[in-house]
Amino acid sequence: MLRRLGLRAVALGYLVVILLAPLGMVFYRTFEKGLHPVWQALSDPDTLHAFQVTLIATGIAVPLNTVFGVLCALAIVRRRFPGKGLLNAFIDLPLAVSPVVIGLCLFLLYAPRTGWFGSWLSAHGIRVLFALPAIVLATVFVSVPFVAREVIPTLRELGNEQEQAAATLGATRWQRFWRITLPSIRWAVIYGVVLTTARCLGEYGAVAVVSGNIQGQTETATTRVQELTQNFQTAGAFAVSLVLAAIAILVLVAMTVIRPREGAV
Amino acid sequence: MSIEIRNVTKRFGTFLALDDVSLEIAQGSLTALLGPSGSGKSTLLRIVAGLERPDSGEVHLSGEEATGLAPQRRNVGFVFQHYAAFKHMTVRDNVGFALKVRRRPKEEIRERVDELLELVQLEGFGDRYPSRLSGGQRQRMVLARALAAKPQVLLLDEPFGALDARVRAELRDWLRRLHEEVHVTTVFVTHDQEEAMEVADRVAVLDHGRLEQVGAPAELYDAPASEFVLRFVGDAVRLGPRLVRPHEVVLRRWPSDGAVEVEIERIAVLGADVRVDLADGSGERLAARLRRDELEDLDLSRGEIVWASAEGSARHVEAGQTLG
User: Fold this and answer.
1) Are the C-beta atoms of residues B243 and B237 closer than 8 Å to each other?
2) Whether B51 and A184 lie within 8 Å, measured CB to CB
């Protein structure tokens, strides 16, 4: 009994010190001087623009990686093809490689004149680095694994008998996907989308390298926090952090709501 | 719809699942594919449904070549051993699925589903999810689902395998009656010889991917084409050099031509029949099955020496010999 209590105390204590204390601090500091400075900091046009950039990048990365993740999971679980093991390993690459390194890779690839893609793109007047496309690319890159990683085990567990049954009942490949496969993996997909969204909103490292951090142009919410902190505009930094933290908490709540239902159906 | 399987061979890697199997199944018949696990019976059924492609050979449905046809274009109903119920759909939606993907009008689907739910005695269960049905109910639901689009062939893969004995017996009966009512060409796979004999008009016995024998249940029992069929369909005992059915063993108190001297080890009364456990001089054991009045006439008891022979009219397979 004592041992179990001890274990709980250690686990809870760890969570409080590592996770909750910093979050609590942000909340406390943000509202230290009332609501007015918070509102003022958040209505700053550069801050608003930074949120807008983050939302655009997320809005592109999430649907793209959802479709890609489901297709990848289907290919890995259902098909046999050469290079399958490689694909499976590559999906995890963004988790293994530091975002800063990813940012650097993108930087080298899209650098005007010297980069493989960058030289061609700049010759055609397309600007990637230090602009929205680079931010989107970085965000897409870092958020690749989540949907596929959630869907793969669910698909494995599901097996393909229900789809075979649907085929014998006259359903075409397309009907089988929409009526059988997708509804069966929907909770895994939703959970993957939630994780992907959280990852996109919080991305900092890769974006910081490729965006150039131009105020009011290529700043994202996270790089905006860094900018404000460096300029001693702590109130603004806290306010933006608070919004990001609030979204994270919403995501957590969404996940706990989704998780138990997964097993029920 | 008649089914014709011509010289079908199928390998999974190095495993030979079906070895040059040819089989004709008549329109409106009820056929069992019988064999031990790994005999290829399920693979053969899946090839008929289009869920597997044979490496060589052909499948003809209603006289038309269908070997490469996708399952959704064959108009067959398939019932899986583990039901393959659509877990995210209600019973109604499960049963109506084949009509829904054919874009039939809602009204027609509703009527047909009602009709089928009545047929499988699941009226009042339409709004439930499969997870809230018993095994037998789920099996009936997927049967109704397979019948919804009026398939020309109904294929069942070990349909009662996952059910307990009582429900099994009920569903066997019920399948037999359903076949009489609906009269769709039906093929089911089983490893249970009793189930095959009881339900089917014709039984095809498979072993190691080869078709051993096809015939009416009585033919397989009375005239097995090989030692495998003799042993697999019903019990077999070794009497001297021959394999015979236990009920064909005749016991006498005096020696005769070809009779084997045996000692009675045990007598077990099984209702109307009696099983007599015997051991010959070399210690080989066999069991004879007698009617009770025969036993009483002979007045046998444990430890006595008698002579066993097989003098029935049935054909007997020499041990080790394969006729088919």
Assistant:
1) yes
2) no
